[in-house]
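We modelled the chain as a single entity of 303 amino acids. Its sequence is:
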Amino acid sequence: MAAPGVHDWPDHFLHYLRVERQLSPHTLKNYRRDLETLHTELSRTRHERWDQLTEPVLRRAIAGLHGQGLSGRSLQRLLSALRSFYRFLAREGWVQSNPALAVQAPRAGRRLPQTLDTEQVAALLDVEGDAPLDIRDRAMMELIYSSGLRVSELVSLNMRDIDLADASLVVTGKGKKMRQLPIGRLAVQAIRQWLGVRQGLAALDETALFTGQRGKRLTTRAVEQRLRKRGEQQGTQGRVYPHRLRHSFASHLLESSGDLRAVQELLGHANISTTQIYTHLDFQHLMEVYEQAHPRARQKRND
């Protein structure tokens, strides 16, 4: 069978992703958008044929898109989509090489994680009400902040994973790695309160620690929605989400202890370089204190 027209190649690629790879509509939309973005830039310089794309032309196109304001992170995703596209074309025998293999996007600036200060956390966790969902939400937030849990780790917790007498829990993190974590005193109290009302919500055969109104294990999406709602109710500045509490846990612990290795273990980071981003937050805090307190830093310049 003859190869389809060059301009039809993206449609064949997307069909392959949808039928054979069974990717979601959202992911397919991203692939299509990235290919169209690049094709528009290539057309601007009259290099729009996919079968004639070369590495130098692609490098210039990436530079052009970066100059137009496309971020390094977006360009990384675009290049990843393009590599997959050309792998498909090579598999079909329509091209001989992949021009995107050696092309790198401009380095994306690393975003500092958003955190809450200790006063903001205290105000957020001061959830009023004695309804079961109030008690549950308070316990979830206390536990995330107390033990630095990922939201996926929180919803995967089972009743057997937690030992309140020992104030500890066992969690399965990324890569199915298990770690034992301490639970703070206030979190223990909040969880005890939740366990006192849990049986009124949970299905008889449900093993999850945290359940929803229908008695089944909570989803990550449900937890995100509940924390966002709690943040709005408590008047917290900025959006509240589970990872923001985890970031706050790490930042506050590192600020107080200075023990980067211990924070790495508690967070379950495989590489300490991932944890080191919190040292930047700590330094920012020190700079704020310095600028507010040091007499020479506070002095206004007239030149």
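As a brief sanity check on the tokenised model: The first helix runs from residue 9 to 19. The beta strands are 162-163, 168-172, 178-182.
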